[in-house]
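Following the same procedure, sequence and fold were stored together, as reproduced here.

>
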Amino acid sequence: MITFEEVHLLKQRSHHEADTRVVRHVSLSERPVVVDAMDTDIFVLLVYAFSKVAPANKWYKKIDKERYVDLGDVCRTYGKEVCDVMPAYHSLTQPPYKVGKVKPFKKMVTHNKFSLLSSAGILLSSLQQRENMLTFMQTLMYPGKDDEDYVETRIRMYIYRR
């Protein structure tokens, strides 16, 4: 149960996005936590935060009407490297692309391609980092062509969506 003091504390923070407020609250908890939200953003943020915080208590996320997933088990199953790139992966699988999230995720893990996203989000990206993003998009999201650059791949993906 959330106390008045905890709600007041959350209001004082600079977190304006509801998803990050949920994750912040969970990360401050000293008890096991169950998050009942069907938002994929929250799942991704919780997995990422769990891998960073490594709490002693359990964090659970409701995944449908009757099932819950232990976020610690998710982190142990996929490892730190995958958990670290979850926000980048999630941002790349957002609309307008019509590829879904599960199929590219399975390919990313199966083919050990998560390292391609390890530098995503760095403001000054190198040519190698851009090539890694292009390779990720072309091999896991939508098959690219050898002579196509990153922008062309994204444009083709957008057109494919229509």
